[in-house]
Amino acid sequence: MTAEDFSILALTVRVAVLSTLLILPVxxxxxxxxxxxxGPGRTLVETLLSLPLVLPPTAVGLLxxxxxxxxxxxxxxxxxxxxxxxxxxxxxxxxxxxxxxPFLVRLSRTAFEEIDPRLLSMAxxxxxxxxxxxxxxxxPLAWRGxxxxxxxxxxxALGEFGATILVAGSIPGRTETLALAIFRRTHIGQDTSAMxxxxxxxxxxxxxxxxxxILTRRRGRRTSV
Amino acid sequence: MNVTLAPLLAIFGLITLGTAAPAAAPPLLVFGxxxxxxxxxxxxxxxxxxxxxxxxxxxGASSDLARQVEAGAPADVFFSxxxxxxxxxxxxxxxxxxxxxxxxxxxxxxVVPKASTxxxxxxxxxxxLPRIALADPTxxxxxxxxxxxxxxxxxxxxxxxKIVPTLDVRAALAAVAGGDIPAGIVYxxxxxxxxxxxxxxxxxxxxxxxxxxxxxTGSKHLPAAAAFVAFVDSREGxxxxxxxxxxxxx
Lengths: 225, 250
Prior knowledge:
The structure holds two protein chains of two kinds. By secondary structure, chain A is mainly α.
């Protein structure tokens, strides 16, 4: 591995960690909300939140690009505030966050739904505030699903490509993650060095999935006892 | 309260850590046409050694890079393979007319895989080929130049269905070098970077190719950006382009 390969790996991991941290509070809150809420608009909200999961990533990327570009709705405000997002590492984080968000929401929602609602009612009747009930009853019971969702979102963030290339370009040393570098190297004919990065991603992906498996399995055994 | 705030604080901490500017002058970001890759890297190294100003590059199709600049990419210098992309940026106020330097030119060539025996003596001979790799002729400068040439030769309509559009000139070169596509049209200087292709034909009656380079008005390091552009156009910079096979105009 060359120094360049290492810096690409470092950038990729850093971006995936940041994006996962960024969506963690919101994603868990959404999962919790959707699990508890029985209102009429629930399916609509759920569907909307899951869109990045089924839309082509490039479609999501273009929507983000249009919103954030200098002349776009959000872009104009950001420009005035002097905040640069597009084609910087922040755009890479944003694209990864948006694309991996549904994984976290769906998995944590399922985990929260599996909790016996009576346990929560009990906590509330024993004087717990809603936040305390969430923190001391719901989260300890659902952490396995939340963690699985977090790790899955992280894995998804590691490999994001379609939305990223549109909002962040593929600027070596600045916005170029593993997925982008593999593409760029292949398309200029440097297949061998691209293959080296493929090997890195295989190791990385293996680690992420392995960790998810181990963590969730161990917990599963404990509950069945 | 503390529990909910902790992760948020961690995020802001990480983000601010990430944005904290290093003590040295931040590196310039130069967006360059893919065909300029080796030349600009050479010039960048010399510039760094002389000025201690680091230069980062992003190479790609000029059309794609111009689009990124228009969307707000934080580039300091743009080096386009044509003048049209620069005109568009100038119209948008992203480049100043007086800052543009247009001294560099190139030539189109037809490349075939090294082992290929294909003989091409004119544009008409391309019609016999099943597929031709070409950077997207609707947007990328080299594709547009090529389309103009082939249209003037009267063979564009016959060739259009055979064109395999690529993202930039280097992708067309790679497709031919890999032996996947029997021919491609690239710049003479691109052909020279690959050991796996052979120049089968050099275009002598094509449209005039003119590169254009300028600092971007949105740059946060305008003096350094202007200095780099001046260096690229200096005797020292021009020699590098000449050595790589570009046509350097006086």
